[in-house]
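Let's practice the habit of predicting before peeking. Look at the sequence and jot down your guess about where helices and strands might fall. Then scroll down.
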Amino acid sequence: MAKKTDEMTVISHLEELRRVLIISIISTTVLAVASYFFSDRILASLMEPLTKLGQKVFFTGITEAIFVKIKISFFTGFLAALPIILWQIWSFIIPALKKNERLYFTLFVFISFISFLGGVAFGFFGVYSMGVIFLLQFAGPTLTPLLTIDKYISFTISFLLPFGIVFEFPLISFFLAKLELVTYNFFARNRRYAILGVVALAAIITPTPDLITCLIVSGPMYLLFEVSVLVVRIVERRIARRRERERLAEMAEPAVTVK
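Done guessing? Here is the structure:
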């Protein structure tokens, strides 16, 4: 009987997971279709750095233009559907959590969405335009850029996504601290390596090798590192206070004498 109940529980969980996946896929698809009607405006915004330089963009295949618009639509649809996707993940996991854990996970869903969008926005408005203009200047008077729209949009998406992921670092640090996998002392001891890592990562994800762009990117990234350190320290102190309360409560319990 217990085995049958366990099987039913597994099946119900799989059905719930299936529901979450279906809703996430449908919401992304619907919003991607809706985004298609704005794809020309979105494409114009993404091509603004090239427009400033008077640079033309070409397509080499008959279907390339429409597939580029579809790619843009699904990328925009995914960003627009993120609240729904995260909400579905929340609804799937939340029943298995305790009351205090539910609060943490709810905050995680909300903050992760804001952080990801903030990272993508920073990458686009703060770095991308300068990077594209800087790279194209290397052509000089002797070379003529022949840019295709598919490669340009693929470059844009692959450039912006890492910024969204990097901006999740404080949130990841919070949960690692809750699991006691990282400590404040660990971050404090390795701060110099963190600075080197931030500069190296900034140099990798930025398309320009100049110092100014690298500083523009690495500055907020290092600030995110310091925020992560502060988050870990706060979590550590809360864990220490909780354990101290538990220790005092155990000491206050009357000893039970067995006769």
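How did you do? The first helix runs from residue 2 to 36.
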